[in-house]
Task: inverse folding
């Protein structure tokens, strides 16, 4: 699997007075098995970008190549492609519609044209993966709690067995436990099943803990494409574009300014701890 | 995807029409719509065309944006034109099988088509240049005398304004849900009519649920801020007439006079 985003630009309300350039010449590459984080201020174009990745929006300039094929081509099979590159929207629980949880999760694989037995098997597996217990399977999805609905909606995408899983702010509005559970689920999918993950998030701590690589966007442009450590070395610039560094990095920077000779490249709690222990020895 | 529906959509730009008092625009639209049904010959249409074209130019809204509203009614247009074309008795011109086209038929079909097109463009000019808020304010104020005879003018205006402001929200929501279902492999574009209707279920159920949720939230929010209907309610920005509004009324009066008088002058009858 390889996904190449080549000089993509996109405008909302093109050719009207309300034209907005939501993506401005964005280029990057996604490799098999990566865990990518996409961060940026509200309105910088993250959701617009991820909708391009699974072919819901077509670039006005530039192109996106999946295994060498342009996904905007007329004869490109978008239907199958959307099964391979799964997208979980912001607030995905709003897309639930079936009478019961299980049938709703079946919707995706069924659309892929799989036989009924395979569809049900996948739905079952996906629901198990997200930790929904059997007794909820035949309840109405509207009777579930917010966090449970979210997990069912994610299962709806997982059931299509995507190679790439894109999640647009999956933890928005969840309580701390719900967030942790969900992030560990995503981590597991990546580590155990080898799924390539693209996570859109506002939490720098999550990014530092999980991502191999960070894409930072500002006003439609891609301003960083690097390892977390290298990105978080630019605290001042990140602050200027409305972002921050992980709490630990911030503390290390402050300690350094107060005269403690700590290393400053710590981005997770463990690394911070190590850095402190080093100077105590 | 769903940006073709222009009726009830505001196009933000700065023009004379945008700045006019909504009451002027309301009356103007009504006068224009009425005038379309007043005249029976082409002289009238020439005057209406001149008027409409000047309004389009004044509004500074791109013409393509206005025509988009027509797309939604193409079928209605076609049916009306066909009925007029074939069902008007008169001097036959062409006839085949059971159908005959008459001279009168062509004339009334052309009139009807122009009428409908002008009607739609005329009313979209008003909505494109007036914010929903302004529009309902204008309506409320123009109709306020009716509240003396127990017509719930304020309530009607409030309902209208809520409905209008919900249109773009619902469109956006529809777009979002459609995309989310398409990401799950849903197909809204192919198949026969029956299949397509069935395919709408994954779109409509979440849409209704979200509409109800929004309505409920809004009702609560209004109550939490002590909304209790129109009694004793004042406006933050009360409507006031300016010089340009008077000028606009004058132009309207001239237009009305012209559409009544000119087509009746024998020398100008076309
Ligand atoms: N359907 C739309 N029509 C018009 N403009 C839009 C639309 N969707 C997004 N935009 C605009 O495009 C820009 C990028 O929006 P986008 O939703 O991609 O931001 P985002 O980075 O996902 O923000 P957030 O973190 O708030 O989700 C914003 O300025 C937004 O106002
Ligand atoms: Mg977003």
Result:
């Amino acid at each position: 699997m390889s996904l190449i985003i080549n000089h993509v630009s996109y405008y909302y309300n093109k050719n009207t007075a309300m034209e907005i350039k939501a993506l401005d010449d964005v280029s990057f590459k996604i490799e098999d098995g990566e865990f990518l984080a996409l961060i940026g201020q509200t309105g910088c174009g993250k959701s617009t970008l991820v909708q391009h990745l699974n072919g819901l929006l077509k670039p006005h300039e530039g192109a996106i190549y999946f295994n060498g094929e342009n996904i905007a081509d007329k004869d490109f099979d978008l239907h199958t492609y959307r099964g391979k590159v799964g997208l979980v929207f912001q607030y995905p629980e709003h897309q639930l519609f079936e009478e019961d949880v299980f049938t709703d999760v079946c919707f995706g694989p069924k659309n892929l044209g799989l036989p009924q037995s395979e569809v049900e098997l996948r739905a079952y597996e996906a629901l198990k993966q997200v930790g929904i217990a059997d007794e909820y399977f035949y309840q109405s999805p509207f009777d579930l709690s917010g966090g449970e609905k979210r997990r069912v909606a994610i299962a709806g995408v997982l059931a299509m067995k995507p190679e790439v899983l894109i999640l647009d702010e999956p933890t928005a509005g969840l309580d701390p436990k719900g967030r942790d559970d969900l992030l560990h689920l995503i981590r597991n999918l990546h580590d155990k099943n080898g799924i390539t993950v693209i996570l859109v998030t506002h939490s720098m701590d999550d990014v530092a803990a999980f991502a191999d690589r960070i894409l930072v966007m500002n006003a439609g442009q891609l301003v960083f494409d690097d390892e977390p450590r290298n990105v978080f070395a630019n605290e001042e610039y990140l602050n200027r574009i409305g972002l921050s560094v992980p709490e630990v990095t911030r503390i290390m920077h402050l300690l350094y300014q107060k005269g403690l000779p700590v290393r400053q490249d710590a981005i997770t709690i463990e690394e911070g701890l190590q850095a402190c222990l080093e100077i105590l020895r | 995807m769903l940006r073709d529906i222009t009726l009830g959509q505001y196009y933000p730009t700065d023009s004379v029409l945008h700045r006019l008092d909504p009451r002027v625009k309301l009356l103007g639209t009504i006068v224009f719509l009425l005038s379309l049904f007043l005249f029976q010959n082409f002289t009238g249409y020439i005057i209406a065309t001149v008027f409409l074209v000047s309004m389009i130019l004044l509004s500074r809204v791109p013409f393509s944006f206005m025509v988009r509203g027509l797309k939604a009614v193409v079928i209605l247009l076609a049916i009306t034109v066909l009925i007029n074309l074939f069902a008007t008795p008169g001097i036959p011109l062409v006839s085949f099988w059971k159908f005959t086209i008459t001279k009168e038929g062509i004339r009334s079909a052309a009139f009807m088509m122009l009428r409908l097109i002008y009607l739609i463009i005329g009313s979209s000019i008003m909505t494109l240049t007036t914010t929903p808020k302004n529009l309902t304010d204008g309506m409320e104020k123009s109709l306020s005398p009716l509240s003396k005879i127990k017509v719930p003018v304020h309530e009607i205006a409030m309902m209208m304004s809520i409905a209008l402001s919900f249109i773009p929200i619902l469109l956006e929501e529809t777009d979002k849900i459609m995309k989310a279902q398409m990401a799950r492999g849903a197909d809204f574009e192919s198949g026969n009519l029956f299949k397509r209707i069935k395919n709408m279920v994954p779109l409509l159920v979440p849409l209704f649920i979200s509409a109800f949720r929004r309505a409920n939230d809004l009702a609560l929010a209004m109550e939490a801020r002590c909304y209790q209907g129109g009694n004793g309610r004042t406006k933050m920005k009360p409507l006031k007439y300016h010089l340009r509004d008077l000028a606009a009324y004058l132009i309207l009066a001239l237009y009305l006079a012209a559409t009544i008088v000119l087509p009746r002058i024998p020398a100008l009858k076309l």
